[in-house]
TrEMBL record:
Highest taxon in the source lineage: Bacteria
Biological processes per GO annotation: iron ion transmembrane transport
Transmembrane annotation, as ranges: 21-38, 50-72, 98-117, 123-147, 159-177, 197-217, 246-268, 288-315, 327-348, 354-373, 393-417
Record keywords: Membrane, Transmembrane, Transmembrane helix, Transport
Protein name: Nramp family divalent metal transporter
Compartments where located: Membrane
Record GO cellular component, one term: plasma membrane
A single GO molecular function term of this UniProt record: cadmium ion transmembrane transporter activity
Topology class, membrane: Multi-pass membrane protein
Record flagged with keyword Nucleus: no
Stored InterPro entries: NRAMP_fam
Record PANTHER family: NATURAL RESISTANCE-ASSOCIATED MACROPHAGE PROTEIN 2 (PTHR11706:SF33), SOLUTE CARRIER PROTEIN FAMILY 11 MEMBER (PTHR11706)
Naturally occurring in which organism (per UniProt): Leucobacter ruminantium
Family matches, as NCBIfam families: Nramp_1 (NF037982), PRK00701.1 (NF001923)
Length: 418
């Protein structure tokens, strides 16, 4: 069912001439925050410090997959006027909606675990704030950022884009003073593993890059920013702008991810303590200078604040679409914040908790991706904008690769392969 729902940004853009491409960019950059969150930092630094350039190919492949996935999500919202959770909620029976929401909520909790812990670690690195107090501060600040969204999506986008700029500088700065091995980078483009540990890291990197909550949310962001239209020319214009939006946003996010892995591979191999974010930050300061260490910490803090805000936004959209209820923002924030605070309060290893959370996210991807591909391929849902054969085949291959990687992880872990 198609319905028109114009958000704050869509009213602004709807009357623009087709040439106003730049004015139509933005939603994908908000979704891209999910691709540079603290979970990415943990997974990428662990992979680079522990295995050098071996897993560069994972990031390149994951980012290429993400472009396809995020475009399909935005396309669903623009063409149908429904978010992915709404489309699923409309088609599933009550029991199915509840079960589907349960797994999506688990994904949201894993997402917030990574983001709150990352922000708390950043506050500890920069100011010595205890981790539990840091998690509480991150949760409180994220509420303030979310409050901006109530004034209109464009304002929220601007805040997130500003934080994205800080994240980019924070995570890329160290690369300019790192001795890169270009031969090693080229070798890292050849797909391969070295035992169970590298498969676990690859699944973690994939879960940190192609994130379920970003798949659910992007359809909402695009719909609320642009609205939906019955005019095929208008829809074509919006989809063309969306392809640019997604391509540019994920080119930036992918570059930041690869930069983190290259930084760790070039400057931190064999350095004690680099299996934790805190240890990696200390090593970065020791080997690349205190200024680079502070910049890295600021980037990590911006990443935690931005990503937990976007994650909470996604959680609210998922709950509304699947359960048909909207709960107060504070309660929604607490639902996913409390598990992260428990982890911090118990003193569990924060970096390992981050990596495990990304593996959980990786297993949640098929539940978002497979329905997305199915819905966007149906003419009954998308009309003339249903996925063409080539795009449908590529999307199916992407889903199959993700499921295969997770199955391989299970098998190798079960048999204890080295």
């Amino acid at each position: 069912m198609r319905r028109t729902r114009l958000g704050a940004g869509s009213r602004h853009d709807a009357g623009r001439a087709p040439g106003g491409l730049l004015r139509l960019l933005g939603p994908a950059f908000v979704a891209a925050i999910a691709y540079v969150d603290p979970g990415n930092v943990a997974a990428n630094l662990s992979a680079g410090a522990g295995y050098g350039y071996l897993l560069v190919w994972v990031l390149v492949l994951a980012n290429a997959m993400a472009v396809i996935v995020q475009y399909l999500s935005a396309k669903l919202g623009i063409v149908t006027g429904q978010s992915l959770p709404e489309a699923l909620g409309e088609r599933l029976p009550r029991t199915g909606r509840l079960l589907y929401w349960a797994q999506a909520e688990l994904v949201a909790i894993a997402t917030d675990l990574a983001e709150v812990i990352g922000g708390a670690l950043a506050l500890h690195i920069l100011f010595g704030v205890p981790l539990l107090l840091g998690g509480i501060i991150v949760g409180a600040v994220s509420l303030a950022i979310l409050a901006v969204q109530r004034t209109g999506q464009l304002g929220f986008e601007r805040v997130i884009l500003a934080l994205l700029a800080v994240i980019t500088v924070g995570f890329v700065a160290g690369l300019f003073v790192s001795p890169l091995d270009w031969g090693g980078i080229a070798s890292g483009m050849i797909p391969r593993f070295e035992g169970t540990a590298t498969v676990l890291l690859a699944a973690s990197m994939l879960g940190a890059t192609v994130m379920p909550h970003a798949i659910y949310l992007h359809s909402s962001l695009a719909r609320d920013r642009h609205g939906s239209s019955t005019d095929p020319r208008r829809v074509s214009e919006l989809l063309r702008a969306t392809r640019w939006d997604v391509g540019l946003a994920l080119l930036l996010a992918g570059g930041v991810n690869i930069a983190m892995l290259l930084l760790a591979a070039a400057s931190l191999p064999g350095v004690a303590g680099t299996d934790t974010i805190e240890g990696a930050a200390a090593a970065i300061s020791a080997h690349l200078g205190p200024a680079i260490g502070v910049i890295f910490g600021i980037g990590l803090l911006a990443s935690g604040l931005a990503s937990t805000s976007v994650g909470a936004y996604a959680g609210a959209e998922i709950m509304q679409g699947l359960l048909h209820v909207r709960i107060p923002l504070l309660l929604r924030r607490l639902i996913t914040l409390l598990p992260a605070l428990v982890v911090l309060g118990l003193g569990l290893d924060p970096t390992w908790s981050l990596v495990v959370s990304q593996v959980v996210l990786s297993f949640g991807i098929p539940f978002a991706l497979i329905p997305l591909i199915s819905l966007t391929s149906r003419r009954g849902v998308m009309g003339g904008f249903a996925n063409r054969t080539a795009l449908r085949v590529v999307a199916i291959v992407v889903a199959a690769l993700i499921v295969a990687l997770n199955a391989l992880l299970l098998v190798l872990t079960a048999v204890g392969a080295a």
